[in-house]
Amino acid sequence: ASISGDTGVIHVVEKEEDLNWVLADGPHPPYMVLLDGNLFNRRVMLQLKGTSRVSGLAVAAAKPSPPQGFSPGLTCPNDGFGVYSENYGPQFAHCNATVWNPVGSGLSYEDFDFPIFLLEDANETQVIKQCYQDHNVPRGGSGPEYPLCAMQLFSHMHAVTSTVTCMRRSSLQSTFSINPEVVCDPLLDYNVWSTLQPINSSGKVNPEKEVIIVATRIDSHSFFWNIAPGAESAVSSFVTHLAAAEALHKASDVHLLRRNIMFTFFQGETFDYIGSSRMVYDMEKDKFPLRLDNIHSFVELNQVALRSNSTLWMHTDPVSRMNESVEAQVRSLLDILSNSSVGANVSLQEVGYSQPLPPSSFQRFLRARHIPGVVLTDHRTAFQNRYYQSMYDTPENIRMQYPQGLSPEETLEYVTDTAKSLAEVATVVARALYRLAGGANTTSAIQADPKTVTRMLYGFLIKMNNSWFQSIIKPDIKGILGDVPQHYVAVSSPVNTTYLVQYVLANLTGTVVNLTKEECLNPEKTASSEKEMYEYAWVQGSLGPNSTSRVPYCVRSTVHLSKALSPAFELRQWASTEYSTWTESRWKEIRARIFLVASKELEIITLVVGIAVLVFSLLATYFINAKADILFSVPQDPGAVAY
């Protein structure tokens, strides 16, 4: 948007024929279009982009979600930043073999020179429509008469052209200005990770120690800023991951396992693998406790909520499997996963050699070295998710349903079918990880808890500010619990999702220890704290029965944060094609207003009359001032006599 906002006469477009008025017939351009959500697609948007008769767009969210699907992402997500290229599996590069997101329109990657706002509130949409109907509806085949209803959108962005340009300008400002005007910021946050057996987070893991990495992404995206529900694209997988971590930690002999297991939650993966590329970079540069040599195998949970016939697909990399050693390890990994599903309501099937990996964090690790690994998804080829990276990837998309009339507390505890389904996946994954790590006992006792899963789904998808989340976080960050969950990575860190994944993981896998608040906040002062091996958190605790006060306690866990900032910004390689270079523009305000505008003729008449009044008042003031001695002289007293 321009610095003073963009203004136009409102026109409501509810069917494609209505576009003709905006694009050609309407006599009062530019127009501010109120667009029905079902028409928010590439074909319509490119028509609006190609004209100067449009000054802005307000999109009314479609309810229910568009049945044909809607994804503003690319048909080949994160293209160019995964493992496949002209030098590695060229037949798989650029989704030549499989188009993963066939409904992807690429709208998020188009440059529009007018502001686009989303209207989620039906009441706001109705107010605008009513103003349009009262003043702007064409009557009798001719244009409407003035005054007309207009709208102004304010969303001026300070950044310009590209990451290279805006970062260079910001860098120059920071170097030479006392009060620098930064125009854009890199997308950044933190990865969350923990280990089954504690390790020294400030040291280095023994080179002989093997570690299995379990990974998932925790961020999502949509066309609109700060609206990223990510139910299927992110939440279904990381909730399953968290449930599997809890189930494994409950096993009695985890401390005896030959291999350690690292639970990893990557941030910024939607934007060309920010989190995973940074962790690989840190491992290569010895800035992380693990090295790439320590990785025994890699298991990634991708989209897993929309399974067809309870089938989960195991994707592997056909290129690295050409190596006999890697093939043997991958074969063993697939067999263990398949055997772990026996007796469960989940069927694991192999995709086959001819298909590459789907978009996944595992690809960034494969770029560094041949690691045996598998990516678990609910799709064999194209995504089952028809709303990938969109505002419609909501709880309804993963079939979360609740009975009518439940209170918020009852809804939090109600175990949905979706929760039961994801708990089954978590159980299979946890049992397989136990076997991979060298566990010899029976795995029947390893069981994910559907009640935990349903609480997490409610908190991460419906209402963050709930009693369970309130009880497991620190008192000083309770402000993060907003009502509407969203999982965009952003530029201020950590974001709400990162904090909550951190504290949920600590709650599910940590131990309550008998420390005072002072000891918990300063564990280095306690001799037995093993500060290098554990993290300590003083959390709010639950409300006591019939009480308004909480019972806080200290949690000890192996949960840590590591930076999720693209190495491109550390290296100042802002045009990098190796690492993500996404930035977000700065702005001062985002707002809108509607009002009535008069005709140009009336505005000109008003201006002319105003100028005439101004000139007349100036002349009047001049003459009054010039004749002030006459107009305002004081008459002499007739009774006064002079001698």
UniProtKB/TrEMBL annotation:
<dbReference type="GO" id="GO:0099503">
    <property type="term" value="C:secretory vesicle"/>
</dbReference>
<keyword id="KW-0812">Transmembrane</keyword>
<keyword id="KW-0472">Membrane</keyword>
<dbReference type="InterPro" id="IPR041084">
    <property type="entry name" value="Ncstrn_small"/>
</dbReference>
<keyword id="KW-0325">Glycoprotein</keyword>
<feature type="transmembrane region" description="Helical">
    <location>
        <begin position="604"/>
        <end position="624"/>
    </location>
</feature>
<dbReference type="Pfam" id="PF18266">
    <property type="entry name" value="Ncstrn_small"/>
</dbReference>
<keyword id="KW-0968">Cytoplasmic vesicle</keyword>
<dbReference type="GO" id="GO:0012505">
    <property type="term" value="C:endomembrane system"/>
</dbReference>
<dbReference type="GO" id="GO:0005886">
    <property type="term" value="C:plasma membrane"/>
</dbReference>
<dbReference type="GO" id="GO:0007219">
    <property type="term" value="P:Notch signaling pathway"/>
</dbReference>
<keyword id="KW-0732">Signal</keyword>
<feature type="domain" description="Nicastrin small lobe">
    <location>
        <begin position="3"/>
        <end position="159"/>
    </location>
</feature>
<keyword id="KW-1133">Transmembrane helix</keyword>
<dbReference type="GO" id="GO:0042470">
    <property type="term" value="C:melanosome"/>
</dbReference>
<comment type="similarity">
    <text>Belongs to the nicastrin family.</text>
</comment>
<dbReference type="InterPro" id="IPR008710">
    <property type="entry name" value="Nicastrin"/>
</dbReference>
<protein>
    <recommendedName>
        <fullName>Nicastrin</fullName>
    </recommendedName>
</protein>
<dbReference type="GO" id="GO:0005773">
    <property type="term" value="C:vacuole"/>
</dbReference>
<dbReference type="GO" id="GO:0016485">
    <property type="term" value="P:protein processing"/>
</dbReference>
<dbReference type="Pfam" id="PF05450">
    <property type="entry name" value="Nicastrin"/>
</dbReference>
<keyword id="KW-1015">Disulfide bond</keyword>
<dbReference type="GO" id="GO:0032991">
    <property type="term" value="C:protein-containing complex"/>
</dbReference>
<dbReference type="GO" id="GO:0030659">
    <property type="term" value="C:cytoplasmic vesicle membrane"/>
</dbReference>
<dbReference type="GO" id="GO:0007220">
    <property type="term" value="P:Notch receptor processing"/>
</dbReference>
<comment type="function">
    <text>Essential subunit of the gamma-secretase complex, an endoprotease complex that catalyzes the intramembrane cleavage of integral membrane proteins such as Notch receptors and APP (amyloid-beta precursor protein). The gamma-secretase complex plays a role in Notch and Wnt signaling cascades and regulation of downstream processes via its role in processing key regulatory proteins, and by regulating cytosolic CTNNB1 levels.</text>
</comment>
<keyword id="KW-0914">Notch signaling pathway</keyword>
